[in-house]
Amino acid sequence: MTALAPLARIHSPPRNAMQSGRANTGGWLLEYAPTPQALDPLMGWVGRGDTRNQVRLHFPTLEAAVAFAEARGISYEVAPPPAERPIKPKVYADNFRYGRTENWSH
């Protein structure tokens, strides 16, 4: 029985939903694909004997993540980075601006 090379996904994580800016969104992650769960014969619990599912490796560039995977023989797939939407600057004083055309939000 031959062991297959572990499959990994390299992607750039999107920004957090609680985040309004672009801070901490420039890196790349390498995450291993989940392995099938197995039933423990003694206790009956479901689990995995592989701890790679818990590993998330952070890299500053895509090239560094790919080089890491190739150096260790990890088969990988690269997901395209999320589309960047422009951030519209908001000013609190605009809520009370004269000649405002938008509806009041409160």
TrEMBL record:
Compartment(s) where it occurs, according to its Swiss-Prot or TrEMBL record: Membrane
Gene3D superfamilies, A to Z: atu1810 like domain (3.30.160.190)
This protein's record includes keyword Membrane: yes
Any GO BP annotation: electron transport chain
UniProt name for this protein: ETC complex I subunit conserved region
Domain of life from the UniProt record: Bacteria
Keywords from the UniProt entry: Electron transport, Membrane, Respiratory chain, Transit peptide, Transport
Primary location group: membrane
Region (Disordered): 1-22
One of the Pfam families matching this protein, by short name: NDUS4
GO cellular component, one term: membrane
Lineage of origin: Bacteria, Pseudomonadati, Pseudomonadota, Alphaproteobacteria, Acetobacterales
InterPro entries found in the cross-reference section: NADH_UbQ_FeS_4_mit-like (IPR006885), NDUFS4-like_sf (IPR038532)
